[in-house]
Design goal:
The protein is mostly beta strands. The chain is globular, with a radius of gyration of 23 Å. The protein starts with a strand and ends with a strand.
C-alpha cells in the first residue's frame, strides 16, 4: 500500500542571493533565548486495534505540541491521521511518533484513513481547550552553567573548520579548509602538518578540506578519513582514507590515499561536510543537496533517493571495494533507492554529532532565508525524512515538492537577531564538566553565543546560555579525552575548560 504523502504550497521564491547560505562558513546563536520559542510538549500514547483507537488522553490546552506515539496492536495494518499529519501505514507491532501543534482551542478529528476502517470505529475527537493562565516564572536554576566554564585558546590557524582526535589520545588535530591538518602536541602546534593535500583540494567559499575522522582502531590500524572537495567540475565530494606513516606517528602518508566515496556535485555549495564513526563502528557522512537554487529549484535533490545528495550516509569504509553498505541500513534492497542513505530531506547538514553513550544523532541543517534547524534521531530511528524542501524548519516551503512522512525539527530557529547559519555542535561528555554532562551545545556563524540544550527524549527540556562568545563560530569538536573545542573561522581554536574556583 502506498505511503501517505504531505504536499505543501510554495511561497514566493526567495531572491537568489539569499539562497546561497554559507555552510562551511556557517553556525548559530545570537542569544540562547532567541534560539527557539518555548512550547509545551505532551506525549499521548495511541494504541490502534481492530477497529478502534485507545488514547492515553484526549485533551490538551491550546498552544501544546503533542507527540502522538502510535503503536499498531491490531492484526491488520492501520495508520493514524490528525490535523493534516499522518503516520505511515503500520504493520502489527510497528510504532511511529508524529508531532502536532495545536495553537488554538477546538475539536480535532482523528481517524485511520485506510478504506473502511473509520466506518468500523477507528475515529474520534481530540479536544483542545483554552490554555490555563501562565505559571509564575520558574525559580533560577540551582546551577548556572555559564559560571562553570571558560574558553582557553589552544592556537591560531588558517581558516580552521574542524577539530578531531583518535580515542584515548591527548593530541589535537585541527583541519584547515585549504587542505592541511595541523597537530597540537603537548600544547604546541607542530611545524610539520599531520596531512597536507592542498594540491588536491579546491577552496572556493564553502568548498575545501572540511572534516577528519579516525578509525575506531586507529591505534593499531593507523587509518584516518577526510572529507574534501576536489578540483573536478564544481568540486566533487570525496571521502578518502589515509594511513599513518611507519616512521613517524605524527604524520599521515599522502601516498596511501584510497578513495572511499565520490559524489558528483551539481554546484559548488551545499556540501555537507561532516564525518564521524558511530558507536556501531560504521562511518557516517553528511552530504548537502548540492545546489542552493542556482541551477534548479531549491532542494530538488533532497527528496530524491536515487542519488547521495541531501542525506546522511552510513557505510563500512573497510568492508568492501571501495566500501560496503551495512545490511541494516533502512533502504537496503529497495528498488531505485541508494542503500547508503541513513536519513534524507536535508539542505546543508554542515555538522552533526552522534553521542556515543546513547547513539542519539543531532544534526544542524542550514536554512535558506527564514529558519535554521536542529534535527534529532534517537538510536534505532532510521530512514528519517527531515522534510526539506517541503519545510524550512517548521515552516511550509516548496509547493511543488512531495515529502513522505516528514519529521519536524527538534529546534526551529527563526532567522532573527542577525542569525544566518546554524552550526551543529556536540554532546558534552567531559568528566571535568559534570554540570554539562549529556547536554548538547550548538551555535550560529553570525551569532557569537553558544546554546546549551537539555534533552528529554525527542524534546528540549530547557535551553541555557553557555556564557561565552566566539565570533564566526564555525565548528565544534571533541578530543580523545572528551574535551570540547570551539572553532572560529577567523582563526582561533578554543578548548572548553572548567572555570577557576572563585
Amino acid at each position: 500500500m502506498e505511503r501517505a504523502e504531505a504536499v505543501v504550497e510554495r511561497p514566493p521564491r526567495a531572491p537568489r542571493g539569499a539562497a546561497v547560505a554559507v555552510a562551511v562558513v556557517a553556525a548559530l546563536t545570537a542569544c540562547a533565548g532567541a534560539v527557539a520559542s518555548e512550547r509545551a510538549v505532551v506525549t499521548v500514547r495511541v494504541d490502534a486495534r481492530d477497529f478502534s483507537f485507545k488514547l492515553s488522553r484526549r485533551s490538551v490546552p491550546a498552544g501544546t505540541t503533542v507527540r502522538f506515539v502510535v503503536r499498531n496492536r491490531g492484526a491488520v495494518t492501520h495508520d493514524f491521521v490528525i490535523r493534516g499529519r499522518r503516520t505511515r501505514v503500520l504493520a502489527h507491532g510497528a510504532t511511529q511518533t508524529i508531532a502536532v501543534t495545536f495553537p488554538r482551542k477546538g475539536t480535532f478529528r482523528f481517524l485511520c484513513s485506510l478504506q473502511g476502517h473509520a466506518r468500523l470505529g477507528m475515529k474520534g475527537a481530540f479536544a483542545v481547550a483554552q490554555p490555563p493562565p501562565p505559571e509564575p516564572p520558574p525559580e533560577p536554576p540551582a546551577v548556572d552553567v555559564s559560571s562553570l566554564v571558560r574558553l582557553t585558546k589552544v592556537g591560531t590557524f588558517e581558516r580552521p573548520v574542524h577539530v578531531a582526535a583518535p580515542a584515548d589520545d591527548g593530541r589535537i588535530f585541527v583541519v584547515e579548509q585549504a587542505g592541511t591538518v595541523k597537530l597540537i602536541k603537548d600544547g604546541v602546534v607542530q611545524e610539520a602538518p599531520f596531512l597536507d593535500i592542498r594540491d588536491r583540494v579546491t577552496l572556493v567559499s564553502e568548498t575545501g578540506l572540511l572534516s577528519l575522522a579516525f578509525a575506531p582502531d586507529y591505534a593499531t590500524s593507523g587509518r584516518a578519513y577526510v572529507f574534501y572537495n576536489d578540483r573536478v567540475g564544481n568540486g566533487n565530494v570525496n571521502v578518502v582514507e589515509y594511513r599513518r606513516t611507519t616512521a613517524n606517528p605524527d604524520l599521515l602518508d599522502p601516498g596511501t590515499a584510497r578513495q572511499v566515496l565520490n559524489v558528483v556535485k551539481p554546484w559548488e555549495n551545499h556540501n555537507g561536510g561532516m564525518l564521524q564513526f558511530g558507536p556501531d563502528g560504521y562511518l557516517y557522512v553528511s552530504v548537502g543537496d548540492g545546489d542552493s537554487g542556482v541551477l534548479g529549484p531549491p532542494g530538488r535533490f533532497a527528496q530524491t533517493r536515487d542519488d547521495l545528495l541531501g542525506n546522511i550516509l552510513r557505510i563500512d569504509p573497510r568492508g568492501g571495494d571501495p566500501y560496503a553498505v551495512p545490511a541494516d541500513n533502512p533502504f537496503v534492497g529497495m528498488a531505485g533507492v541508494r542503500p547508503e542513505i541513513w536519513a534524507y530531506g536535508l539542505r546543508n547538514p554542515w555538522r552533526f554529532w552522534i553521542d556515543p553513550p546513547t547513539g542519539t544523532m543531532l544534526i544542524g541543517d542550514v536554512g535558506l532565508g527564514q529558519r535554521e534547524e536542529i534535527d534529532i534521531a534517537l538510536r534505532g530511528q532510521t530512514g528519517r525524512n527531515f522534510g526539506w524542501p517541503c519545510f524550512e524548519g517548521g515552516v511550509p516551503f516548496g509547493g511543488t515538492a512531495t515529502c513522505v512522512a516528514p519529521v519536524p525539527p527538534l529546534v526551529d530557529i527563526p532567522r532573527e537577531g542577525g542569525l544566518c547559519a546554524v552550526i551543529g555542535g556536540v554532546v558534552v561528555r567531559d568528566p571535568r564538566l559534570p554540570a554539562l554532562d549529556g547536554r548538547y551545545l550548538y551555535g550560529d556563524f553570525c551569532g557569537e553565543r553558544i546554546a546549551v540544550l537539555t534533552l528529554d527524549g525527542e524534546a528540549v527540556a530547557r535551553t541555557d546560555d553557555l556564557g561565552v562568545t566566539v565570533p564566526q563560530l564555525e565548528s565544534f569538536g571533541v578530543d580523545g579525552l572528551g574535551r570540547v573545542y570551539v572553532v572560529s573561522l577567523a582563526g582561533d581554536v578554543f578548548r572548553l575548560d572548567p572555570a577557576p574556583a572563585s
